[in-house]
Amino acid sequence: MLTRKFLAAVALGGGAALSLGHAFPQSNPAFEEWTASFEGNSLDPAKWERFTFEGGAGGTFKVENGELRMRSVNGSRAGVRSKQKFTGDHFIVEAAVAKVGAAQPEPGSGGLTPGDAHLTVLFDDSGRNRIECIYTSEGTFEAWAVVNGQGERLDNRKLATKIQNPTLGVVRRGDEFLFMLNGQIGLQKH
């Protein structure tokens, strides 16, 4: 698990329309709030930048009606990250999912790849150290820790929701991480 101080950006993306990202870093005794929305027809370059986690940066990308709409291709994982960086060992980060696209056929494969939306807390500029909340088009909810590029799935593969537009959240209290779905704790890890 990631035990160092939070010093990073918030990243959003996947095959979804994400409507809002919040980061609430906390350091004693002050409490700082940062909120960013997607307005107009393009990404606000003062707040957000495109970011690729894995693979290429291809696919579709647009901001429309206050929503970030993305679809990655060929197994790539891309999104946007906040230009604002935060420090502290306590924080809450959340994003409302407006829509997740349906499963799509993967080129060269007989199966379908589910659409997903992800909320990611980056602990470095490369993305090799991060915590991720992922909501799929199948209604499942995944929690991941990636340390030095090696991913570990933290959930029990039994987390799901029937709500079409959930809110994803990650909370950190020191060495404890809480993965939230619609304001409720779905998973707690030390």
Description:
This protein is an all-beta fold and 190 residues long. It has a single domain (6-185), classed as Sandwich (Jelly Rolls). The chain has strands at 6-8, 10-14, 16-26, 34-37, 48-54, 60-64, 67-71, 77-82, 86-88, 90-100, 104-105, 112-113, 116-122, 130-136, 141-147, 150-153, 167-173, 176-181, 184-189.
Q: How large is the share of residues in beta strands?
A: over 45%
Largest sheet: 8 strands, antiparallel
CATH class: Mainly Beta
CATH topology (fold) name: Jelly Rolls
Structural class: mainly beta
Low-pLDDT regions: 1-8, 15-22, 25-29
Overall mean pLDDT stands at: 76
**Rg, Cα atoms, Å:** 16 Å
Q: Approximately how much helix is present in the residues?
A: under 10%
The overall strand count is 19
The N- and C-terminal alpha carbons lie at a distance of: 7 Å
The succession of helices and strands, N to C, reads EEEEEEEEEEEEEEEEEEE
Keywords:
Jelly Rolls, mainly beta, 8-stranded antiparallel sheet, 190 residues, 19 strands
Task: Detail the topology: elements first, then pairings.
Layout: E1 6-8, E2 10-14, E3 16-26, E4 34-37, E5 48-54, E6 60-64, E7 67-71, E8 77-82, E9 86-88, E10 90-100, E11 104-105, E12 112-113, E13 116-122, E14 130-136, E15 141-147, E16 150-153, E17 167-173, E18 176-181, E19 184-189
Antiparallel strand pairs: 1-9, 2-8, 2-13, 3-4, 3-7, 3-10, 5-8, 6-7, 10-17, 11-12, 13-14, 14-15, 15-16, 17-18, 18-19
